[in-house]
Amino acid sequence: MKAENHKNSNLTQEEISDARRKESVERFKKLTDNPQQGPSYSFKSKTTAAILAWFLGCFGIHRLYTGKIGTGILMLIIGLIAVVSYINGWLGPFIIFTFIAGIWAVVDFITIICGSMTDGDGNLIKE
What we know:
Elements: H1 2-8, H2 13-33, H3 46-56, H4 61-66, H5 69-88, H6 91-114
């Protein structure tokens, strides 16, 4: 329909293509002139979080440090159950809870080192 309107005003096909191209470029510029905000970064230290995850990871201290309180408390409970199981000589629960807490801590440690761990507000933990 637009092409018919342009034809009636004696525009050549090349002029119509140029006009459409310019419209597309203008629309693209409007979209890209407002750059998207990049990822926000936390004020928490990546090094501190990594050290806490390495040495106290089974107890979730690194998660408490980064502001992930819920999962930090859950890891703390799992770690404490593992310690109590060990003290009381309950081998089955000790192995299970140590395995769960250990794998979770190793995954968190790798996530921190790779730079994709976020704090409690969803901000990336960076240097």
